Fold these 2 entries.
Entry 1:
Amino acid sequence: MDFAYSPKVQALRERVTAFMDAYVYPAEPVFERQVAEGDRWQPTAIMEQLKAQARAEGLWNLFLPESELGAGLTNLEYAPLAEIMGRSLLGPEPFNCSAPDTGNMEVLVRYASEEQKTRWLEPLLRGEIRSAFAMTEPDVASSDATNMAARAERQGDEWVINGRKWWTSGACDPRCRILIFMGLSNSEGPRHQQHSMILVPVDTPGVKIVRPLPVFGYDDAPHGHAEVLFENVRVPYENVLLGVDAELLQRLGPVHPDVAAQMADRVRAALAVDGRAADIGLATTGVAGPEPQGEHPAGLAYIGLAIGERIEVVELRLEGDRDAVRAGVVERAVQELGARLPR
């Protein structure tokens, strides 16, 4: 496969890079200040300014693959643009290319009815509202989506939805107007055809945004990752996307290339060594131990970086250090318990 940039992609790379340099990177401290000084869960003025500027320059909805609603790029052509956007935590949103909206919009483009497109897709494409994808659950290993247990049951002309979701990214944002709920609708069907995707407006009775979930102490405001409770939520049967018990890949596939590409350059920036941009082919971490050393355990952390054409292994010994012990405990808790917390 030829991975060389076409003239069209190279021109877009240069334009996106110039926009990031001129507007996005200088806006980072402004964004942080506005979040800290105001209501943390309200959109910031600087982000709205960036969105207006990017749209005016034609750098808008670049993610939609081979669609007249976007830039007409394939995933291969869009990937290097997503990498550039991903160098900043602010990067994707000014271009209307941030998850989970990207994956949700792709699903709506492909599978929504005309009425659903008018109500939800068009304002998403204009950047006027946000969306969320309610999949992950606290009581099952949701990295395997076939494990999801929250239920969607048909009663007449309605779906009745019950269950608890969490890590529902974007649901804390007051601009979030629509959820795509993925739930168990046919427990007797083939393993990958037991679930359905259903559109649930956020203001539907029975939908409760319980709380934002912190990640190592950070709440990621004003975007956030929410725990969401669905209690006897009723929506029209027509709100199902693609049909009942559709293949899971129809939603899980579109967003992953976007997020992976955006994270790639963020990792490069974070793991730059001695001021050099790290070409990350592999990044792994692990904690060995703990082994007693006085009153504190000892830990051993490894980071492997692919830099250029060679592998460098950075070894960091942590002995008798309270912060290091705390870091080891956090790491071990994450590995063994995931995000599960007592309620």
Entry 2:
Amino acid sequence: MFIRTFFSLSLVSLFLFSCQNKIPLSSWEGQAMGSSYHISIADNLSDAELKRLKLGVDEIFKSFNKSLSTYQNDSEISKFNQAQSGEWMTFSPMAYELLFKAWYWSKESDGAFDITVGPLVRLWGFENEKRRTVPPLASEIAKTKKSVGYQYLKFDEDQHKISKMISTLRLDVGGIAPGYASDLISKFFKAIGHPHHMVEVGGEIKVSGFKDPSQNKAWRIGVESSSESGEKINRVLELHNESVSTSGDYRDFFIYKGKRYSHTLNSQTGKPIDHDLSSVTVIYKDCADADALATVLMVLGPEKGFDFAQKRGLKAIFYIRKDKQLVERLTDEMKKVVENV
């Protein structure tokens, strides 16, 4: 197991559209980081080369868990979470890069994405196998919030060190880890001579090159969304050297006294988000960034999130609940790249 069950599919599921390729795809799938992954290489690989790639991917996941799994007590992130305030800890280059990126988006979003939200996630039961059916008390939320806040972290970029100002503060990379893993695997493929590929880890997709290099055919990623009435809205994204991430509240939640409590938490309130944004899909160059940004927009909601995306020129699709239907809203940059199914 890796960080938590946020890897389960959200309201918007992403899948590859099939089309006739002159160059066959070599594909495989598996389980890692508490979720599934799917990989396609635009090449007719030999059995030996396919085995080499699979072993390389397995090693990336092992290294990732060794550094960043909160389920392993001897991982780098677990050791940091157990450390006292004021202690400086040196991280491996991979772990530091991810943690710094997560901290960056925490700052940029004023905490809509918060790398330290872990204690609240555990309080609300979204990290535990035994899920909550009743919300925590207001006093429990207030107490837990005192252990949350990206502003209580310090980074030493020269020595790859991090310290915290509160001993009970915990790092949680659940909102960015699968995207970063997709990026790492993509870099690995490029480094060994396979520039045309698609990597999906926990629903976070990174594409490189073309699906059919002989015809310069882009990777076609379908975005499917269903409202409570069963209506479906479909879009097709043609991608080349880009990433796609989706955040939604449709599948991972519980209902108490008629109110939905989503797994997506607002670290400022200490509670699940409470608005009409059902899901949001983001296109960005790096998958880790797309992953974090999808969370940012989901927490901010249909208005503030859309304004955030517009001001930063993001490619994003918002699905907003209205009268048991979903209303689709696209940012100006996204309008330039989508096509109807």
